[in-house]
């Protein structure tokens, strides 16, 4: 499973109370989903380095990510799968 950061900025824009952090999660079966969270400045505390904030967001979302992963893990991979097409039967009139 891979997590790609696709949203990271203070929120709300006009009077920030924390950071919103969003991820595109890709599973080994090719399925993916989006998930995000808001971390208040109180939750962030002294963790002011971007990587630490991202790690906190992943930790906060861990249960939700695992629940969604379990749901999507059961779905077969469609993209890249091969199908056999029967030959067309031509009818002559």
Topology:
Elements: E1 2-11, E2 18-26, E3 32-40, H1 41-44, H2 50-73
Note down, in words, how this protein is organized.
This protein is of the alpha+beta class. The chain has 2 helices and 3 strands. The protein is elongated and about 70 Å long. The N and C termini lie far apart (56 Å).
Key attributes of the depicted protein:
single chain, 93 residues, alpha+beta, 3-stranded antiparallel sheet, 2 helices, elongated
* Helix fraction bin: 25-40%
What distance lies between the first and last C-alpha atoms, to the nearest angstrom? 56 Å
Strand order of the largest sheet: 1-2-3
Shape: elongated
Give the structural class: alpha+beta
Task: Tell me the number of structural domains.
Answer: 1
| Cα-based radius of gyration, to the nearest Å | 21 Å
Number of strands: 3
- Beta-strand fraction estimate: 25-35%
Mean pLDDT: 88
Order of helices and strands: EEEHH
Number of helices: 2
Low-confidence stretches: none
Largest sheet: 3 strands, antiparallel
Short description:
The chain is an alpha+beta fold.
